[in-house]
């Protein structure tokens, strides 16, 4: 066996928790592990050992995108097999994150980063999201809920947690395609403002406001929420779903200060975001190809910043398995609509997006990330229900 194949043999033996069969670029095959192989891996060309050692996330991710690396078997389960091995590189991202250069998330950079991901086109997202166009963790009240029903559940669950009252002012930071603000205005009679940096989301959300006859009740703004601070009346409720992960680590204190400054005294805020156990930058493949400028905050970072700003934590709930199931549904929808996706995206993009959806599903199932909803108030609020019963009443 040549030295390159010896390297990959040792590397692959150490990262999987299941037996794998590997077919190398010269046509030879090797099995690593005991018993029957659960997966088959194809290494179609030699991959630089130096690059794998320096950054396996970026190197192997690009190798898959370029069809240098391929799999036979369920790609999510293959990645889960690596996560289940606690000694694998997937569980040691901090070792590699120290190499990354982190640029500050200025207003201009935040806009560019968000548009990179969310302005891929409403036609693309509509092929695999549900009809609400909700692109964040759903909430499965029942095992057999469709992804559409689970997204409706999620929006209703968040609105219940906010304990909305008619006439209140609600701000949604990172409002996506507008489902939450539209539902809040329809169901609770609040006056809602949604902000987004995505041209595509702004266009679609604005159309939906008109379609729902909510002019004057719901306003969609194409802007960075930071441009609102000090320039608008304060809000009774502020919600943010899946936005803070785009802010960057250095802007976490800014976010909490801004929430404090924009909330009325006793006001309530809900932060729905991906979380990490410990602090560390996202891997370079994700930052280069999927979420430039992204940072996953740790739970303790967020809670500490709440305390610094007289924001009182009322409730924190993990939705980790809900996001696993959400991503699994999206990945299945993606595969079921490949014929249509191929009309607008090339093969490299498709392989990139397939890896992204399945790697994220694996990460929430057996990996290193979680997702939480944090409910907190500005100062003390003695009017929220004392139990959670109200969350589960229809």
Automatic annotation (TrEMBL):
The keyword Methyltransferase appears for this protein: yes
Domain DUF7884: 7-93
Keyword Transcription regulation: no
Family: Belongs to the CFA/CMAS family.
Signal peptide: none
Entry keywords, A to Z: Lipid metabolism, Methyltransferase, S-adenosyl-L-methionine, Transferase
Alphabetical list of SUPFAM superfamilies matching this protein: S-adenosyl-L-methionine-dependent methyltransferases
Protein name, per record: Cyclopropane-fatty-acyl-phospholipid synthase family protein
PANTHER family cross-referenced by the UniProt entry: CYCLOPROPANE-FATTY-ACYL-PHOSPHOLIPID SYNTHASE
A Pfam family annotated for this UniProt entry: CMAS
């Amino acid at each position: 066996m040549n030295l390159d194949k010896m390297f990959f043999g040792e590397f692959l033996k150490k990262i999987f928790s299941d037996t794998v069969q590997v077919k190398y670029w010269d046509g030879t095959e090797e099995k690593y592990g005991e018993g029957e192989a659960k997966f088959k891996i194809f290494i179609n060309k030699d991959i630089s050992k130096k690059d794998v050692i320096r950054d396996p996330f970026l190197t192997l991710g690009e190798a898959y995108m370029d069809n240098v690396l391929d799999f036979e078997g369920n790609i999510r389960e293959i990645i889960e097999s690596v996560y289940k091995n606690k000694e694998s590189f997937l569980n040691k991202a901090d070792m590699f994150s120290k190499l990354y250069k982190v640029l500050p998330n200025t207003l201009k950079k935040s806009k560019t980063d968000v548009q990179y991901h969310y302005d891929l086109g409403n036609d693309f997202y509509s092929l695999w999201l549900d009809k609400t166009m909700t692109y964040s963790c759903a909430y499965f009240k029942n095992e057999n809920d469709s992804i559409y029903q689970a997204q409706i559940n999620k929006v209703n669950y968040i609105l219940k947690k906010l304990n909305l009252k008619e006439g209140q002012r609600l701000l949604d930071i990172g409002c996506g395609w507008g489902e939450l603000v539209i539902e809040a205005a329809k169901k609770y009679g609040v006056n809602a403002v949604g902000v987004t940096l995505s041209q595509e989301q702004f266009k679609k959300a604005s159309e939906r406001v008109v379609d729902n006859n909510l002019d004057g009740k719901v306003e969609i703004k194409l802007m960075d929420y930071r441009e609102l601070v000090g320039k608008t009346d304060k809000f009774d409720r502020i919600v943010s779903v899946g936005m803070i992960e785009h802010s960057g680590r250095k802007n976490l204190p800014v976010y909490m200060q801004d929430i404090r400054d924009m909330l009325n005294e006793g006001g309530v805020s809900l932060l729905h975001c991906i979380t990490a156990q410990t602090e560390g930058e996202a891997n370079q493949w994700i930052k280069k190809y999927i979420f430039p400028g992204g940072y996953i905050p740790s739970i303790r970072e967020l809670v500490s910043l709440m305390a610094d700003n007289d924001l009182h934590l009322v409730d924190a709930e993990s939705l980790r398995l809900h996001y696993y199931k959400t991503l699994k549904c999206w990945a299945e929808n993606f595969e079921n609509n490949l014929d249509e996706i191929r009309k607008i995206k090339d093969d490299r993009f498709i392989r990139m997006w397939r890896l992204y959806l399945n790697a994220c599903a694996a990460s929430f199932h057996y990996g290193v990330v979680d997702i939480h909803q944090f409910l907190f108030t500005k100062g003390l609020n003695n009017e929220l229900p004392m139990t959670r019963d109200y969350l589960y009443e229809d």
